[in-house]
Design brief:
Elements (H helix, E strand, L loop, with lengths): L1 H16 L12 E7 L2 E2 L4 E6 L8 E4 L5 E3 L13 E8 L1 E2 L20 E2 L3 H4 L6 E5 L4 E8 L5
């Protein structure tokens, strides 16, 4: 009987540690279009970073040939983003030959050779001027009309 009285509290502690944490805010569908100098921008990374009282985590997406994107969680497990305010980063990296840069999982990112083609006011976390509001019902109408010169 003494073993059982020691085992039961240990078992309860282990089970309590296996509980799921809070689910986080509900995600709503979010998408839009990115253009550069009036033309659709393909292969650009779009990142929404929550600001102010917006709960949840960042959301990421990649533009298609028509410049359209949809966002999901960074681990790509769930589509959408929480409703709220976001700072937006848009990045377009190319290889020295001009083709889209694709990071390789076996390559050290510090050794990668690519060029960012968008100005820092769009692509740099400290300098971006882009923002977005995601309504409670979601949106597919975010529009980012970028200029090569930055404004």
């Amino acid at each position: 009987m003494p073993r059982l009285t020691l085992l039961l509290p240990c078992l309860l502690v282990v089970l309590a540690g296996c509980q799921k944490g809070p689910a986080g805010p509900a995600l709503v569908p979010v998408g839009g279009t990115v253009t550069l100098d009036g033309k659709p921008l393909s292969g650009a990374q779009v990142t929404l970073i929550p600001i102010g009282s917006t709960a949840g985590q960042a959301a990421v997406g990649k533009t298609d040939a028509g410049g359209k994107f949809e966002v999901s969680t960074p681990d790509l497990a769930q589509k959408g983003a929480a409703a709220g305010s976001y700072r937006v980063l848009i990045s377009k990296k190319v290889n020295p030959d001009g083709t889209d840069f694709q990071p390789s999982p076996d390559q050290d990112p510090a050794l990668a050779t690519y060029k960012e083609i968008l100005p820092p006011v769009y692509s740099d976390d400290a300098q971006t001027t882009l923002t977005a509001e995601v309504p409670a019902g979601g949106t597919s109408e975010l529009q980012f009309n970028l200029k090569s010169k930055g404004r």
